[in-house]
Amino acid sequence: MKILLIEDHKPDAILLRELLSENSTDQIHLFHLERLGDALEALKSRAFDIALLDLSLPDAFGQETFRRLNRVAPSLPIIVLTGIDDQELAMDLAQAGAQDYLVKSELSSGLLHRSLHYAIERKRTELKLRLAATVFESTLEGIMITDAKTNIISVNEAFCEITGYVSEEIIGCTPTMFESERHSKAFFRQLWDVLNKTGQWRGEIWNRRKSGEVFPAWVNISAVPNIVDDKIGHYVAVFTEITELKLSEERLNYLAHHDPLTGLPNRLLFQDRLAQGILQAQRRKSMIAVMFLDLDRFKLINDTLGHPIGDELLVAVAERLRRCARETDTIARLGGDEFAVILSSMAREEDVEHVAQKIIQALSSVFCVGGHEVFVTTSIGITFYPGLNNDRSKLLEQADVAMYHAKKHGRNNYQYYTADMNAAAYERLMLETNLRRALEREEFRLYYQPQIDVQSGAVTGVEALIRWQSPELGLVSPGEFIPLLEETGLIVPVGEWVIETACRQMKEWLDAGYPSMTMAVNLSARQFHQVDLVERIAQILQELNLPPELLELELTESMVMESVDSAVEILHKLKRMGVKVAIDDFGTGVSSLGYLKHFPVDTLKISHDFVLNLPRDSVDASIASAVINLARNMQLSSVAEGVENAEQMDFLSGQDCERLQGYLFSRPVPAEKIAELLGTWQAMPKKSG
Ligand SMILES: Nc1nc2c(ncn2[C@@H]2O[C@@H]3COP(=O)(O)O[C@H]4[C@@H](O)[C@H](n5cnc6c(=O)[nH]c(N)nc65)O[C@@H]4COP(=O)(O)O[C@H]3[C@H]2O)c(=O)[nH]1
Q: What is the ipTM of this complex?
C-alpha cells in the first residue's frame, strides 16, 4: 500500500510511521512530505493508494488544505488527521468527500489500518457508482428501472426524451402507461414468461409517447436479483428507438414493390396481389379479372418528344388509371408503357367491360405534358379466373395475348382471351409478343462466322448472323423468328440494328489492330425495299468512319427478281457508295442469268444445299463449279457456305472458289471468340492441297 503522509509535525509523523508498521499484513510504502505544495507536485509523477492529510500545514490551512488536494487528485482516498477540537471541521470535510477523519490523540495501530482499508474500499465504490451514474445519464439508450412489482423507480434523461415525459410524471407509475395497443395480451404473456425463466427478454416493442404517437423500440429487459435473498429485486429495461430504422426498412420495402416513376405497384407486387386475389376468389367462390394494357403510339411519343415527356405522360396515365378502379383493385406498371389491372371480387363478367370502357374513355382525352398536347389510346387484353384455363401462372400471359389481339383489331379497344387463342395460335402470338419486346429489351445478339480465303488460308471476312437470347426460350436461331419478323414488319428496325451492330463490331476490331475483313450482313426483302435503306447505311458508315467496301450486303435472288427495276436502282446506289453486294444461295432461286449482267453485284454465294453432297453428287458438283466459273468470268468473287469436311473443301478450292465458310473452320460464334480466332488463325497452314 502506497501512502502519502502530509504532516509537518515531526513527532506526529514518527508516531504514524510506527503505528503503521505495527501488526501490518500489507507492505507499507510511506512517502512523507511536510508541505501541501510538495505533495501536489509529487502527485504529478507518482501514484498513491491513499493520503493521510494534516489540516494545518505551513502552506495551507483548514478546509482549504483538503479542497486543494482533492481538486488535484479527485480519485485519491483522503483521510484527514485532526486535533481533538477540530472534529466538527473534520465532519464537514467528510461531507465534502473525505473518506474518514482520525483524531491524532486517539490513534491506535488497529484503528489506523482499518480506516485505511475502509477508506480505499469506499472511494473505489464511490468512483464506480459515479461512473455508473454518468453512463446512466449520458447514454443515448433510454433506461427504465422498476422494482419487483414493476413500479418505476428511476428513468434516465434519454428515456424522458424518447417518451416525452419528465421523470416526475413517470416515477411511481408502471410501464403500462406507455402501452400502444399494438401488442396482444399473448405477446406480453410470452415476454414475462421468457423474462422470468431466463432473466432476460429482447425484442421489438411499440410504445406510446406522451404526445400519443406510437414508436418502435428495440428493448432489452433484464431481471436483477437482490443480493440478499436472490429474488428478483428490479427490472432494468434499455430502449433503443428504431423509428428511423423502421422508416428506412419500410422505404426499402416500398421501393422493392413499387414503380418509382408512377408510385404504382410493380410487377413483383402485382404477382403477389394476383396470388392473393386467386386465393380469395377460391374461398369466396367469386371471380377476378386480369387486364393487360399497353399504350398505343407511346414509343413514337417517347422517341419524338423525348424521355422526360414520355415519363410525364406515364405519370399522368397512371393517375387517370387510378381513378378508374376501386380501392380493392390493383393497378400496376409492369414496365415501359405496360400496365396491368386486377379487378377483384367481381360478381359478373360484364363488370369488367364497364371498367375497360371507363379506362378507354379516361385515356382518350388530351394529355398536356411538357407544353405539348398529346393523345394516346390503349389496347386492353382481358382474362378471368376461374376461366377457360385455370392455370394461374398463365393469367398475365393470356391477358397479354388478348391485348395483342386488341392491337390487331385496330387498337383503342379491348379483347377477351378466348380458347382459339391457344395452342399453335397462342404459341405464335406469344412468340410475336416476345419478339416485339426483344429489341427494346436488347435480347438480340450477333454471332459471326469466319470466311476463309482459299489462296492465303487467312480469315478475310465474317458473316454476321442474328440470334435471339430469349429469357423464356433460350437461344433461338433466325430460321424460327426471321419469317415472323418479316411478316410483322419488325424486320426493318431489327435489320437496322443488325447493320449498325455489325459495323460497330467491325470498327472495334479495326481499332484493336486486327486486319481489315469483309463484314457480310443479310438483308431481308422488306428491308431491301425500305425507302431510306441506302441513306441509313451511308449514315452508319459515316458515323463510324468505316470504309464502305468492308460491308457486304447479302441479298437473295428472289429479292432482286421481285421488282427488278427498283432493285437495280438500289443496287446502283449501293455500288456508288462503295458497299459490296453478294447474292446469297445463288442458283436456288429463279434468277435468269440474263439479268445478272444488269445487276451491279460483287459476289455469288453458293448455297450449302449444293455443298452438302460434294463431291459425290455429280449434279451438285456441276452446279457448284458452274457458279464458281460464272463468278470468275464476270469478275465476281465466289463464296461457298456450309463447308463441313475436307472433301468439300478440297473440291471447292480445286475449282478455285475464292472464299469458304462452314463448320469445318468455325461455327458462328460471339464476337469475343472471333477475336480469339483471329489471333491464332493467321498462323494456321493453308487448308487445301
Ligand atoms: N449445316 C450447316 N450450316 C451451316 C454451316 N456453316 C454455317 N451454317 C449456317 O448456315 C446459315 C448461313 O446463313 P444464310 O444462308 O445467310 O441463312 C441465314 C439468313 O438467311 C437468315 N439470317 C441470319 N441472320 C440474319 C439477319 O441478321 N438478317 C436477316 N435478314 N436474315 C438473317 O437466317 C438464315 C439462317 O441462319 P443461321 O441459322 O445462322 O444459319 C447460318 C449458318 O449458321 C455448315 O457448315 N453446315
A: 0.95
